[in-house]
Amino acid sequence: MWESILLTLAATAGNNIGKVLQKKGTLILPTLSFKLKVLKAYASNKPWVLGFFMDIGGAILMLRALSLAPVSIIQPVSGCGLAVLSIFSHFYLKERMNIIDWMGIAFAGIGTIGVGAGGEEQKASSIPLFHLLWLFFLAFILFVGTLLCAQADLDVYIFPFFR
């Protein structure tokens, strides 16, 4: 049970922090389109790429956690990701937080511990790590495929509504 809770915390942290990094990366990037020049700019922006892979990694960890525990345990724990996001924003983005924010983070942590302590161990089918790695690989191929489609300038003919 505790393994799935820790996986969920890592997954939700990866998702939330990944999105913050992607947002920070887009501050200097042009509006997203399927033009090769724009996609190359996104692919070469280190904060955006790191955020992208953290977000994908978080999704893979979440799948693993869901294979180990029921959704009724995982979903409340994933709400603690907002607390992780708040702490990350405080230290990385230098956002100021008041006492109510800190109390909310503390309650989220206490709630996560409560869910873990109150949950029952269950036998669940697990997803092999090999399958999760394949999922990550396929997501990467999809990302590279998008870059290749943009290079061939197919967006002019197939995706005109993305402009």
Which key phrases capture this entry?
mainly alpha; 163 residues; 73% helix
Question: In terms of per-residue confidence, which ranges show pLDDT below 50 for 5 or more consecutive residues?
Answer: none
Q: In this structure, how is the largest beta sheet organized?
A: none
Structural class: mainly alpha
Order of helices and strands: HHHHHHH
Helix content range: over 70%
Q: Please count the beta strands (DSSP E, at least 2 residues each).
A: 0
How would the global form be characterised? Answer: flat
Radius of gyration of CA atoms, rounded to a whole number: 19 Å
How do you describe this structure in short?
This protein is mainly α and 163 residues long. The chain has helices at residues 2-26, 36-43, 46-68, 71-78, 81-92, 99-118, 129-151. The protein is flat, with a radius of gyration of 19 Å.
Description:
This protein is an all-alpha fold and 163 residues long. It is 73% helix and 0% strand. Helix 1 runs antiparallel to helix 3 (46-68) and helix 3 packs antiparallel against helix 7 (129-151). The N and C termini lie far apart (46 Å). The mean pLDDT is 79.
